[in-house]
Amino acid sequence: MMKNIAVLPGDGIGVEIVAQAVKVLNCLQTDFGLEIEMEEGLVGGSAYDETGSPLPEATLTLAKKADAILLGAVGGYKWESLDIAVRPEKGLLGLRSELELFANLRPAILYPQLAHASSLKPEIVSGLDIMIVRELTGGIYFGQPRGIRTLENNEKQGFNTLIYKESEIERIAHVAFETAMKRDKRLCSVDKANVLECTELWREVMIRVSKDYSEVELSHMYVDNAAMQLVRAPKQFDVMVTTNMFGDILSDCAAMLTGSIGMLPSASMDKNQKGMYEPIHGSAPDIAGQDKANPIATILSVAMMLRYSLGSEALAIKIEKAVEDVLNQGLRTADIYTEGDKLIGTEAMGDAVVAALKAL
Ligand code: NAD
After folding, report:
1. What predicted TM-score, i.e. pTM, was given to this entire model?
2. How far apart, in whole angstroms, are the C-alpha atoms of residue 331 and residue 333?
3. Is 335 a pocket residue for ligand 1 (Cβ < 6 Å)?
4. What pLDDT does 140 receive?
5. What's the pLDDT at 82?
6. At which of 229, 263, 297 does a domain end?
7. What is the mean pLDDT of the chain?
8. Is the domain of 114 the same as that of 171?
9. Per-residue pLDDT tens digits for 271-310
10. pLDDT, position 188
11. Which atom of ligand 1 has the smallest separation from the CA of 297?
12. CB 353 within 8 A of CB 326
């Protein structure tokens, strides 16, 4: 059945890397029978420049009617001084909340070919395969009240609210347990239940939901310990589930274990498996327009799209295999390059993955 994909390149390197992912999708159409239609939309700073909004109505409509969304990245120096309400990042946050993409899945996988690119010793990270499930539409990033107020003594006070309803915790818990069921059946829930009541409730709900998944071994860890364990012995983890802010921080930490954020995809899902797929990195304005960006994270995001929203595990595996083949050929963009490798640019990396796909 024909599926509709909204393609939102965004800003900076977003444009360059999404172009490579689209090449891969085109190849899947022509050579592997994937039935899709793609339609492009504006988001972020480029959308603001053209329409005055980082999330124009037309883009929101396009995203709502699509079966899946492929996003590059948003942001850049040019828009940093804009009012916060129209900054590029608002486009992204708007998409996440309007589409109720509450579950963020971020795998951190270390390809053996890149073990030396990690900041940790190869024996600690080699074979690493973690999935972090981050709650994405609640918690302190969205909680009200929030702001900066002036106290009676004229001192300013900043405040935010960490808030979760049971139903919000329950739905992310189900995603995490389901994810664990498809993997090694071990789930670690990360909280700060010793200090924050909100995460005391988080822990209580995780334990309650665990009764539906007797095959999954549930454990709990305080976030400070989890940060330490991620760099001490990361391979102890299979699936981790946590709140919006803790997940934001821990998933970047896990990402670095794998050598480069240019390698890591992500999926943000709603309750019906509709998802937005994007690399975990930003728009990298420092290298934008220079054919230097690594497109692999975006290409692997397409693999996640096929697996989770388009129901094609077989094609997802093909993309992942093609990426491995390219790495085995020694081809590297600058972020994962070490002496002896063959240094190539964004375009050439996209072409190499397509060639490897065709050769499968
Ligand atoms: P960034 O992820 O864009 O870049 C961090 C560093 O990693 C830079 O040195 C960059 O060159 C490098 N890098 C990132 N992706 C790469 C790739 N594919 N290949 C090679 N190198 C890569 O983070 P930042 O510099 O903190 O932010 C830049 C802009 O991106 C800001 O405007 C920020 O708000 C935005 N941002 C957007 C998203 C998103 O769209 N999801 C996420 C994070 C940051």
Report:
1. 0.90
2. 7
3. yes
4. 97
5. 95
6. 263
7. 95
8. yes
9. 998 999 999 999 999 999 999 999 999 999 999 999 999 9
10. 98
11. 18
12. yes
Ligand 1 and 287: CB distance under 6 A: yes
Task: Provide mean pLDDT across the span 109-129.
Answer: 88
Instruction: Give the number of domains in the chain.
Output: 2
Q: Which of 224, 271, 286, 342 is catalytic?
A: 224
In percent, the amount of the chain with pLDDT more than 90 equals 89
**CATH number of the domain within which 207 lies:** 3.40.718.10
For residues 250 and 355, state if they share a domain: no
Mean pLDDT to the nearest integer, 145-150: 96
Specify the pLDDT at position 115: 84
The candidate with the shortest Cα–Cα distance to 310, out of 17, 108, 28, is 28
Domain C-terminal end among 209, 238, 263: 263
At 312, the pLDDT band (50, 70, 90 cuts) reads very high
Residue 224 has pLDDT above 80, yes or no: yes
DSSP 78: G
Q: Is 284 in the pocket of ligand 1 (CB under 6 A)?
A: yes
Joined together, the tokens standing for residue 249 give 């921080």
Residue whose Cα lies nearest atom 10 of ligand 1: it is: 284
Catalytic residue among 3, 23, 90, 192: 192
Residue labelled with tokens 């330490």: 228
- Are residues 144 and 55 both part of a single domain? no
Q: For ligand 1, atom 30, name the residue with the nearest CA.
A: 282
Measured from the CB, is residue 299 less than 6 Å from ligand 1?
no
Assess contact for 185 and 215: CB atoms under 8 A: yes
Ligand 1: distance of its center to the CA of 234 in Å? Answer: 24
Regarding whether 27 and 15 lie in a shared domain, the answer is: yes
Look up 224 and say whether it is catalytic: yes
Q: Is the CB of 76 under 6 A from ligand 1?
A: yes
136 lies in the same domain as 120: yes
Question: For the chain, how far is it from start to end, CA to CA, in angstroms?
Answer: 24
Query: Residues 76, 209: one domain?
Result: no
Q: Are 12 and 283 in contact (CB under 8 A)?
A: yes
* Residue 348 domain boundaries: 1-102+270-360
Q: What is the pLDDT of residue 252?
A: 87
The mean per-residue pLDDT over the stretch 103-122 comes to: 89
Same domain as 256, residue 122 = yes
Q: Does 132 lie in the same domain as 57?
A: no
Let me know the angle formed at the C-alpha of 261 by 293 and 351, rounded to the nearest 5 degrees. Answer: 40
192 is catalytic: yes
**Whole-number pLDDT of residue 127:** 87
Q: Is residue 239 left, alpha or beta, with left meaning phi > 0 and alpha meaning psi from -120 to 50?
A: beta
Known catalytic residue at 248: yes
Task: From the candidates 129, 252, 291, 325, give the one annotated as an active-site residue.
Answer: 252
For the Cβ of 293 lying below 6 angstroms from any atom of ligand 1, the answer is: yes
Q: Which atom of ligand 1 is nearest to the CA of 72?
A: 40
